[in-house]
């Protein structure tokens, strides 16, 4: 399954166009390699996604073409979440 489609179907990112834009900016990695929106995602892959000041690492558990909102969370497992430090705070 394409990376941008997985991110949309799993509801990690709400719109496929946004998922494509983020991937094409080099802010998503699959198994520690920079990924493009057309990269293939397989079960067991680890995705690292940079959102603004938050970085999320998730593992792909299953791939389905369509899903309901309450079933989407089963497609992945969050391994790690980290937030960038606020350098301007004192």
From TrEMBL:
Segments forming domain RNA-binding S4: 1-61
GO MF entries: ribosomal large subunit binding; rRNA binding; tRNA binding
Keywords: Protein biosynthesis, RNA-binding, rRNA-binding, tRNA-binding
Gene Ontology biological process terms in this record: rescue of stalled ribosome
Pfam family, one: S4
InterPro entries for this protein: RqcP (IPR025490), S4_RNA-bd (IPR002942), S4_RNA-bd_sf (IPR036986)
Domain of life per record: Bacteria
Segments crossing the lipid bilayer: none
Sequence similarity: Belongs to the RqcP family.
Function: Key component of the ribosome quality control system (RQC), a ribosome-associated complex that mediates the extraction of incompletely synthesized nascent chains from stalled ribosomes and their subsequent degradation. RqcH recruits Ala-charged tRNA, and with RqcP directs the elongation of stalled nascent chains on 50S ribosomal subunits, leading to non-templated C-terminal alanine extensions (Ala tail). The Ala tail promotes nascent chain degradation. RqcP is associated with the translocation-like movement of the peptidyl-tRNA from the A-site into the P-site.
Subunit and interaction comment: Associates with stalled 50S ribosomal subunits. Binds to RqcH, 23S rRNA and the P-site tRNA. Does not require RqcH for association with 50S subunits.
The protein, known as: RQC P-site tRNA stabilizing factor
